Amino acid sequence: MDALKERRSTRSTRRPQMNCDDVDFFGSSEQSSDTAGVFDTPIEASGEDTREVCKDEKKAGFRLLKDLTTVDKDITASDIEKLKERGFLTYESIMYATKKELNSIDGLSERKIDKIIQLVSGHVNMGFTSATEIYIKRKDIIMIGTGSEKVNELLKGGIETGSITEIFGEARSGKSQFCHNLAVTCQLPVSRGGAEGRCLWIDTEGTFRPERISQIAQRYNLEPELVLDNIACARAFNSDHQRDILVEAAALMASYRHSLIIVDSVMALYRTDFQGRGELADRQAHLGRFLRHLLRLADEFGVAVVMTNQVMANVDGSAMYGGDTRKPTGGNIMAHASTTRLYFKKGKGEQRICKVYDSPWLPEHEARFAISNEGIIDIPEDS
Asked: Which residues in the chain are classed under CATH 3.40.50.300?
């Protein structure tokens, strides 16, 4: 495992090198000033030379659209603000959007949209890349530790950044507990199994508990107040609100260094806002737009996206022949949007089972873990 973490010591395409291997950013004695700098310094640093700011943005893996006002006099600050209101803050966000979506922005003509696309297109690779180059880049992807070495081994290092991981299971299977642990470990230095970034939490069921975060932080010798300051939580009250929150999330990630987005849970509001077969098509279309926006944020900012999901009864014929009687909600749209799908099941006592349900590169194995006061841990040998 140590060799694996060292091989993934930095994600060069998304993260600046922090030289953290020899520094304990979160020592038990006192908070390091370097750590405060990681979280408290905005990417949009004021008072600096524009070229230096652009250099910092390039290191972070994205460039902000505000730079266009210095490149072309036809692009004004008002134009950038209109894009920002719709969640477009970076060059990548423009290139990942459809022309139809961009043309729907009030106050921007089709000619100006074409001009913006032309200006940013040369800075974002939207074409083919050799498999060798992709292979080399994937070696540098940061994996966020889960708290359990057994689960880390199952996932080849932890939760993958730059992609969507879905965790589904019945009530009390440990989904929210797992997310609370990730909200802490994502802030750790890479050398300690973290990703050196803040966490955004979209709470649809009122399950976020800062008290739990404080408990877990103490396990890693972190200052609970600092850890809580690095987590921003938004309570979503309906499916429209859940999607609109992503615009604010993009603004936060463009300003400060983030490594994780948690949605707990992704389907809860959709199951209450859309009911019956008559609204199923509308629900899936709305859900598809939300998931597409999430994937865009993962690609744009290189963050890990973890979303929990509920289960429903499996009424097909497989259950009659010993198959699983439960399956994740959301249908094919959810299945195709998730890069990795993890199935959580209850075990004996506080034991839980994490099974790789679907993944493009992980085998369908499982690992057991336990939930303790310290968070997610390996099962003690005497259990």
From this structure: 136-377
CATH top-level class of 50-121: mainly alpha
Report residue 93 as tokens: 């966000």
Residue showing tokens 């850890």: 227
**Is the Cβ–Cβ distance between 127 and 302 less than 8 Å?**
no
Cis geometry, peptide bond prior to residue 265 (ω within 30 degrees of 0) = yes
Q: With a threshold of 0.85, does the pTM exceed it?
A: no
Binned average pLDDT, 10 residues per bin, the chain of 383 residues: 37 38 37 44 43 44 87 92 94 94 94 95 92 93 97 98 97 96 97 96 97 97 97 97 96 95 96 93 96 96 97 69 79 96 92 96 96 94 68
Q: Among candidates 340, 300, 352, which has minimal Cα distance to 63?
A: 300
Residue 45 has which token pair? 């640093």
Q: What is the DSSP letter of 338?
A: -
Class of the domain covering 136-377: alpha beta
Give yes or no for a contact between 303 and 164, defined as CB atoms under 8 angstroms apart: no
Count other Cβ atoms within 10 Å, centred on residue 266: 30
Q: What single letter denotes the amino acid at residue 194?
A: G
The Cα 104–Cα 247 span in angstroms is: 16
Q: Which residues contact 198 (CB under 8 A, 6 or more apart)?
A: 39, 186, 187, 230, 231, 232, 252, 256, 257, 258, 259, 260
C-alpha span between 189 and 191 (Å, rounded): 5
Indicate the burial class of 208 (C-beta count within 10 angstroms; 0-12, 13-18, 19 or more): buried
**With the C-alpha atoms ordered 232, 236, 241, 243, is the resulting torsion angle positive or negative?**
positive
